[in-house]
Task: structure prediction
Amino acid sequence: MFLSKSFGYALRGVLYVALADKEDRKAQLDEIAEKLSVPRHFLAKIMKTMVKEGVLQSTKGPYGGFSLNEKTLDTRLLQLVSITDGVEQFNACVLSLRKCNSKNPCPLHYQMLKLRDDMLAQFSKTTIGDLLNKENPDFIKSISTIV
Amino acid sequence: MFLSKSFGYALRGVLYVALADKEDRKAQLDEIAEKLSVPRHFLAKIMKTMVKEGVLQSTKGPYGGFSLNEKTLDTRLLQLVSITDGVEQFNACVLSLRKCNSKNPCPLHYQMLKLRDDMLAQFSKTTIGDLLNKENPDFIKSISTIV
DNA sequence: ATTAAAAAAGACGTTTATGTCTTTTAATAG
DNA sequence: CTATTAAAAGACATAAACGTCTTTTTTAAT
Result:
């Protein structure tokens, strides 16, 4: 309802790489996809995009894989949303009215505006690093428990 | 992002019927679709479903069309969401984790829970009648201004 | 240099949301 | 009762999201 599956895969993917980083190792696609129970090739596309957008780093070849870069932990969730879903839709009217605005509000304009602002605030203030600092001992389990 | 197009069409459709009702007349599909700039046959399906679900009334044949019933104005927006989108997705984890709950929360569990509750509260408390009582003089314009 | 490993790239397939078209059913006027 | 009108029903079409498979490119060890 709120976000695409790609967003969830992206976030779990980058979190997995961050956890591997704590063990001073890179994470490879095969491992990530398997541990997170996410379609391998689909995840590949998403990881690739994140690399292109500078959220992650990757190296090819033997001993290659995905790793963090200087920006990863400071990346805001909103940027992930932007990469996987786009942010324009946040501003779209629920009634599909293009000319819906405060001058000519649809019947749900202000109600939705509030919900939207709350959501944007949440996703803007939270970074990848924030999620990792929660010190949840079951963190790994929580991002991979799918069944 | 939040809701399907069908939801927007459904709400605008039923509001249009309510406005026609204030003029003591039924609204026909051709008129509604044209005035709201919504695909006729697609809207037909949605209107039909709303009739089946008891949100609206319809009569076939000459001088037929869609009209309100005793329940229409008391219908909560959540019921429209339920008809067009389903409500299960409100409870789905953004990370697609099936076993995400307060015992085993994903990193975004509580943040999303709050947003979700706010949204459900909004949609639960607001009825079709509430939207009509806002006395917005540009109401008709606001639900049909699409271009 | 050669080979193997791993990501990048891109073609292809499936499913779901959205949209269109035609036929059927029901109601009313005359 | 017949013709007409309008919704109901259902088949078909398109676009976007989601997923799979194969080939190419890059890297590193030997």
Q: What stands out?
A: The CA atoms of residues 80 and 100 of chain A lie 27 Å apart. The mean pLDDT of chain A is 92.
